[in-house]
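User: Second chain of the day. Same drill as before.
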Amino acid sequence: MLNSSVLVLNRSYLPIHVTSVRRAFTMVYQDLARVLDDRYETFDFESWRRVRSSNGSDVIGTPSGAIRVPRVIVLRAYDRIPKRHARYSRANIFTRDKFTCQYCGDRPPRSELNLDHVIPRSLGGRTSWENVVCSCVDCNRRKGGRTPEQARLNLHRAPTRPRWSPLMNIAASNARYDEWQPFLSIIDGGARAAKFAG
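Assistant: Same format as last time:
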């Protein structure tokens, strides 16, 4: 339960991050954030401890009694939206390519996906956003140390560096709670607009 997700809003109530319940409690206890309930009321740590859990709400047991798990917190001083660049990683390549082989278009289980250098390293290809794609094991074997043209494979989409913002990362998050919906509708609309624009 302490590792489940909490939506973090900036002081202007815009979603900027997803954190763990453990970190959210720490931030509220240190008076860096307030808990926001479904009626948009804010609570400091002591007042949140006194809030009774409703049916279906998650709680954590403490020596002084059960405390309700917050699902949304609001930062007290931060009012900007942080600019972040997507870090190059295996997981982010899979996310960028939507867990789909960029050669055959199949979506096999994650255990059957790997990364492929479009221009092989043996031919001077670099390990970068612009040269690495998600591929299934079969296409990767078929391609081997050749270019897609040499292997007679078609690349569905040229690899590019993603332009993710923290809001797009939240929109892609699998962990969503009912309490998040009023804030995520802004993100979902933006994500749809970005999809049609790109």
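The beta strands are 5-9, 15-20, 33-36, 42-43, 59-62, 65-68, 72-75, 113-117, 132-136.

User: Great, on to the next one.
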